[in-house]
Amino acid sequence: MDLSTTYLGLELKNPLVAGASPLSRSLDTCKELEDAGASAIVMYSLFQEQIENEAVVHDHYMDYGTDSFAEALSYMPHHVGFPRGPEEYIEHLAKVKQSVDIPVIGSLNGTSVGGWVEHARMMQEAGANAIELNIYLIAADAETSGRDIENRHIEILEAVKKAVTIPVSLKLGPYFSALAHFAEQLEDAGADGLVLFNRFYQPDIDLEELEIVSDLRFSAPHEMRLPLRWIAILDAHLDASLAATTGVYTSFDVLKMMMAGADATMLCATLLRNGIHSIQFILEGMREWMEDHEYHSVRQLQGSMNQVTCPNPAAFERGNYMRELNTFRPFV
Ligand SMILES: Cc1cc2nc3c(=O)[nH]c(=O)nc-3n(C[C@H](O)[C@H](O)[C@H](O)COP(=O)(O)O)c2cc1C
User: Fold this and answer.
1) What is the pLDDT of residues 135-154, one digit of tens each?
2) What 3-state DSSP class applies to 2?
3) Ligand 1: does its nearest atom lie under 6 Å from the Cβ of 246?
4) What pLDDT does residue 81 have?
5) Does residue 248 have its Cβ closer than 6 Å to ligand 1?
């Protein structure tokens, strides 16, 4: 059974990539991911704020007493305990790369163009096989238009592409008004792949303490339907690689994503909740299903359920929507 796939030009032995998570913080867990069968590892992110904060601290010691220092530091959330500074991150990435044989993808996370993007080059020098650029941005500024936000993504992408020769993928949120058009623009700007989608962490309100509660909730399996739909739509238009993230838990989820047109799937919550060994179960489940349904390779089923044969995906989606609403019968 051939489970191999090509993602960002990298030959992967199967579509199960360990997505960005704290599991890449330790060399031991990286080794465990490889031993369990992961085909690549995306590192946890190095953040723009983390890099810029380090630069501010450096400037402070070089130029003690400037007024800008306090303001600049207040911008940085001190209580966020970054496990490593930028230099240590790069050193750690180099060690991960030396300790596993599977591809290692560096993750750079930011929201505006700046000197921090140079860290993409450092990741490449440390041995990264590709860069995953995560633009985790809540468009909360009423002065900023959708077009401005899209242009900002393109500018950051172009700056990172300029800094490296290895492939660059872009991890995006789902909230764009015309994602199919925007995805094509990203491809034109040099994106080698898209990772769909960033999962935005949503705060709640504690009614007793009257405080905002910001806690991390894992994805629910049904959340995989959002990337599933968009991968099916985008696979019909793009040459860039597509990776699915959010709600990928089981072998069936992986098979569906690949049929929709994904080139790889990113596992995170399932590894944190069910353990790294769940990779083996997912691989076994894939082999079993493929054998039962007479598929010999993942490539054979890849994209078989995308929307390439659908002349008008918007009308198709609207037709499904109307049918669901009109055929639903309340249980009363
Ligand atoms: C504890 C935790 C840490 C994460 N850290 C990162 C990160 O550093 N960079 C990143 O791009 N995504 C990060 N993610 C997001 C995951 O890579 C993934 O996109 C998201 O959790 C949705 O996938 P899932 O449903 O498989 O969890 C993190 C997620 C979790 C739960």
Assistant:
1) 998 888 999 999 999 999 99
2) strand
3) yes
4) 60
5) yes
If you take atom 4 of ligand 1, which residue's CA is the nearest one? Answer: 21
Q: Residue 328 C-alpha to ligand 1 middle, in angstroms?
A: 34
> pTM for this one?
0.91
Residue nearest (by alpha carbon) to ligand 1 atom 20 = 246
- Which atom of ligand 1 lies closest to the CA of 271? 26
The minimum-distance atom of ligand 1 relative to the CA of 198 is 19
Q: Which residue has the tokens 């089981």?
A: 250
What local confidence, expressed as pLDDT, does residue 279 receive?
A: 98
Taking the C-alpha atoms of residue 311 and residue 232, their distance in angstroms, rounded to an integer, is 13
74 pLDDT more than 70: no
How far does residue 212's CA lie from ligand 1's centre (Å)? 22
Residue 37: left if φ>0, alpha if ψ -120 to 50, beta else—which one? left
Q: What separation in angstroms does the CA of 67 have from each of 55, 64, 70, 100?
A: 15, 9, 7, 46
CATH level 3 topology of 5-327: TIM Barrel (3.20.20)
